[in-house]
Amino acid sequence: MVARAARAIDLPDLDGAVSDCFACPRLVRWREEVARTKRAAFRDQDYWGRPVPGFGTADPRIAILGLAPAAHGGNRTGRIFTGDRSGDVLFAALHRAGLANQPTSVAADDGLTLRDTRIFSAVRCAPPDNKPTPAERDTCAPWLHREVALIRPTLRVVVALGAFAWAAWWPVLRDVYGVRPPGARLKFGHGAHWSGTSGPDLLGCYHVSQQNTFTGRLTPAMLDDVFTRAKQLAGVD
Q: What's the whole-model pTM score?
């Protein structure tokens, strides 16, 4: 898979390769089981049931890095953060920030487009209980590394949604940018900021999970602050 990711010449080529990955047996079994059994509310829909590629512009100045697709969100629709409550919160915030043309993301053909932004995840398959293993994260890493390499010329800021994504960024910094991660790895927190002499700035943001948004740990105002900061650092009007 490492060689396959490295051979991708552009984002469409990479997206096609990602969608055809079977490298992690546990994740393959789970994503396909969910696609067969379905949730009652979506029983008449055909599930994607495959790894979910990135979404957004090919020349982004801002990247949003998540954990993994949701079982009945991206794993159903085929587009990251689409068709679930987390996506509702995220895309509403991106629309308020002027980075999305609409505040909702319900299906892959709903007309949504992003401006100066690309979204992808550290793990490309929906994991059981939303918890990929370290081995699955590492197996999936070549896809993330190649995607960042392809958008490197324009990328200025990465927003990491949650501690898992925050931790997944440091190997990218090392392998794609040749930058040694900070000593003792800077601790994740909402609003945490790392900036180096090369490589994009990194901003921490609590994940847009229902656990965070329903409890008020992450509010719309907090999300707005992160994306305002991301736009400033990226030079996006």
A: 0.97
